[in-house]
Design brief:
The complex is a heterodimer.
Chain A: H1 2-16, H2 29-60, H3 67-112, H4 121-143, E1 159-162, E2 165-168, H5 169-191, H6 193-203, H7 205-210, H8 215-240, H9 249-262, H10 267-287, H11 290-307
Antiparallel strand pairs in A: 1-2
Chain B: H1 2-21, H2 24-49, H3 57-76, H4 84-88, H5 104-127, H6 133-153, H7 155-158, E1 169-170, E2 173-174, H8 178-204, H9 206-216, H10 218-223, H11 228-254, H12 264-277, H13 282-302, H14 307-321, H15 325-337, H16 344-352
Antiparallel strand pairs in B: 1-2
Helix pairs in contact in B: 1-8, 2-8, 2-11, 2-12, 2-13, 3-5, 3-11, 5-11, 9-11, 12-13, 12-15
The chains are: A mainly alpha, B mainly alpha.
Amino acid sequence: MIALEQHDTKLRMRSRGIFFWGGCRSVTIVFLLDQLVNGFSNGSILLLTAIGLALSFGLMRVINMAHGELLMIGGYVTYFCTRVMGPENFLWLAFPTAFVVTALLGVLLEFLVIRKLYGRTLDTLLATWGIGLILQQGARQLFGPTGVPVNAPSWLSGQWILGETSIPHVRIFVFILAIVVLLTTIALISKTRFGLNIRAVNQNREIASSLGINTKLIDMSIFAFGSGLAGIAGVGMALISSVTPTVGSSYIIGAFLVVMLGGMGSLWGTALAALLVAMVGAIASSLTTESLSQVVALVAVIVFLQLRPKGIFPQRGRSLEEA
Amino acid sequence: MLLKRILIGVAFILLACVPLVFSSYNVGLMGQFLALALVAMSISISWGIGGMLSLGQGLFFGLGGYALAMHLKLVATPKGELPDFMFYNGLEHMPWWWEPFTNPGFAMCAVVILPTLFAAFLGMVVFKRRITGVYVSLITQALVLAFVTLLNGAQPYTSGTNGITDYHTFLGIDLRTPEFRNQLYFATLVLVVLCYLGAKAFLTSHFGKVLLAIRDNENRVRFLGYDTSDYKIVAFAFSGMLAGISGALYALHKGTISPQMIDTSHSILFVVWVALAGRQSLGGAILGAVLVNFLQDKISTLFPEGWLYVMGGLFVLVAVYMPKGIIGTLEPLLSKVFKPKLSPRVELQKEQA
């Protein structure tokens, strides 16, 4: 209740237009807890987005700006699944479908565009931004500029009451989803034969190739896997916010900062960074406004990169120049 | 080389003839494009020659644009009253940092100094820590996002998403008359030519050569004893200054400035203009800005829905097939046609080789 009231005053202050530097608002513990819970779930989506990026950016030096749009497509796939399966069981269909659809798109993208751009990181950035624009406009024409809602099934719509605060089940679900995806990806890279090949290609492409690894196939499959993860992130995102054509682009810049902050190619770093960014954002938004807190989070990342320009867990190598 | 100079000279003369041929509306449009050509040139300097791709050029563009627009808005507001959007948002007093912008001299100095200082500061923060390449791009992109979020969020102070609008006079001259449009067009053209020549001089000097060397191999230049980050900071600040001037001119031409003209997608669009024509050529940047904007104007009036597809396609086309841009692709062909005459002895040596 107190949290609601707090929120109310915040809204009122906002509508009066004197929200900017916050004034001196008392911050209760409950309100802070609420913000932290929000922070955790935003961090989860951020992490889900960033894992896919960390794969393509960290392992292949490809900046995939269309990643956000793959997220958006995952969201629309979820919407379709609610139409097909009804409001209760759609998630079981949504996860595999979103993964497969976006992974196939990833294959197509790699085959048509990315393949020609290896070694030209900045060009991958421009090309994928263009692809993102096309996908966004396509979604706008197909589904309209306003969002489509996806309601969580009833078994996820409850809340977990914790003293004075409460945590919606959906947010816990998204958090668990992020952890599962993170652990699966780490296991895939560090424990399987496929992961061994990926690491080999990443470390030395020529030698890996001479040992009989199909490097092109590895490239394509990493990219496809990363894209598929974007689809899964899209399902999670659809559960906590409505799906609009531009929803993906609102995550992408933050997600890239998270990858940089974590250190290239380090998934644990990415996870830690996502959590940090979300927490800084959450704490800032309990002190000021939503928009200012985003600014604070972005600037905090840039300041942190001053201290550790290569991220939290930098990859150490002997080469003077970065590839 | 001579041919190139002649071509560029002819292009500028043609641009000067625009007001004689086109209608007032089209002159206004061309003026806008020329104003935007400056920001394209600024990217060509920092990216094409300095190797620092800023995806946040909108930040400097916006600082310049807003600095002038704030002054114009204050002029358009009756004395003793608040600008309309402040009033609507329930503000009772003018914020202190708006006050000095009543002075046109201050505003015009701010147009130049604010973006330059900010770019220099950002350069210091980034390049001194040896952050390079795509990291610079992502950081600048994040910064422009932060700037736009701030502009949108602080509605009582910046008019939010609407941007600053409804100003009609500059130094006592009415902005809407056709005569002024022509004058403004010429003023913009002169400024573009001056900036072009200035930038050329800047880049053909020793400084420019070091900058080029840094782009091609920063570590070697560092081993030769240069502090490369200083060179990069100066170039980045210069580029920021040009972008700021461009923003101010654009605000004058367009009659409004808003966050949409600055945001991440617009900032990256600036880059594509430059990439399309050839990132390493200043003249190419002007050509690219005018060409793409002209295309955008025509296509988006014909097919309002289609422009974004064309634009997206343009990004892919440039990145995949023409990384050197139109000029970079054509130049080798041209120089083949206009091969400089070699002395007979050299020709003979070549044949024997």
